[in-house]
Amino acid sequence: MRSANSLLASLILFFGLQTTGCNSTTSTPTTPGASPAVIPLSNGATLPSVSGSNVMTLTVNGSTCSANSYPNKPCVSITLCSTAGTNCQTINDILLDTGSYGLRVFKDVLNAGLYSSLTNVQNGSNPIAECVQYGDGSKQWGPVKIGKITLGGETPVQTPIQVVDSTFTGMSSKCSGAMTSSTSAGLNGILGMGLFQFDCGYNCAISANNGSYYSCDTTAGTCTGSTVSLANQVQNPVALLPQDNNGVLIEFPDVPSGSATSVDGYLIFGIGTQANNTPTGTTKTYFADSSYGEFTTAYAGGNYSSFIDSGSNSYAFPYSGTSLTGCSGAYTGWFCPSSTTTLSAINNSVSDSTSGTIQFQIGNFINFYSSPNNVSKQIGAKSGSGIGGLFDWGLPFYIGRNVYHGIDGKSSSLGSGPYWAY
Q1: What is the domain class of 25-240 according to CATH?
Q2: pTM (2 decimals)?
C-alpha cells in the first residue's frame, strides 16, 4: 500500500476486495522492552525458528490479523504508550506496509486513557493534522501526536504518529472520502517501514503548500497548509532504534500449493547487526533511487519503474504485452487466466549493473477468491497499460523469500540505502 506523499509518485494499486470483520485489540498494560523467547510458528519446520529482541512474528491473515480480512494482509502486533509510559496498549491487526512510513492507528481502537495522554504536535497553539493519500486511492486524515512505540523486544522509541480520525476538525478537501473507522477499513492501523525515514521529507519542512500537513484552528474548525520540521513528521520507527536501525528483513516460508489459509513469518530489525539478520553470500542488492525509492523492471518488452511493497496484496503490472486474460464483472482489474501461467521479468538496480530474472506465477483470481484460502502467491492485477504503468512486486513476492529493506542513508554489508535485497 504505497503512500503518494511528497517523496513518492502517485500510483494506482490494488488494495484488495475488502471484507470487514471484527478487529481485535488488547487493552491490557504491557512491559515494553521485554525480550521474547524463541517464537514458534504454525508453519512447523518449513521456516526455522528465529529468536532475539529484534524479532517480531509477522502473519499473513493469521493470529495477529482480524478474523475476516482481505487476501494477503500481513499483520503485526505493536505496543503504543504515552511519552511518559503511563498508558500503554497492545494493538493487533496492524498492516505491515513497506510502501509507506510510520505508525497510523485508528482512534476508535485506542482506549480513552491512552488517546488523551498522547501529546499533540503543534504549530504554535494549533494542532497539526495530516492527510495521507495512498496509491490505491484510499486516504487517511487525523491529528499527529507523539507516542512511544515498542517493536518486539527493542527499546521503545518516541516518535510522531498519526491518529486516524475522519471527524477531526477542518478536514482538507484533499482528504475527502477518507477512511472513517477501523471496521470499514478492515484493519486497526498501518505500520509503514519503507525505504525512507520521514513520510514527507524536506518538501514539507520548507513549503506550507505540501498537501500533507495542516495547522488546525479547533475553535474556527479550519485547517490550512503548514510546514512541519523533519523531527515532527510521522516517521519509520526502525530508523529511530538505538541499534538494528539500518533496515528490516522479512522472512516467509514458501507455499508449495500456491495458496493457504494463513502463513506465519518473521519481521527482523537490522541488517547485518546480529546473527539472525546477516545476509548470505547469495543475496543480491538492488539499489533504488533516492527520490522515489524505485528500481526498474523489464517485462514484456517494456521497462517500468518498480518497487517491492508488502502492503499491496498482489502483483500489479501493466497488461500491455501479456496474454493474460482479465477477470470480468465485480473482479475487473484482476487477472483470471484459464490455467496458472508462469511469467518472467528482470529487475535492475538503478546505480550499478546488478540484474536478476524473476519467474512468478499468476493464477485465476476468481477461483482463489472463491476458495477458503486467504493467502496466495499467484494473484495479479492490472496497474495500467503502456510504458506509463508501474510494476508493483506486492505481498506474493515475499512468500518463500528473505527480503531486506535498506533505509535511505544507512549502511550495511549490502550497501547504503535505499535498496532492496533478496
Answers
A1: mainly beta
A2: 0.90
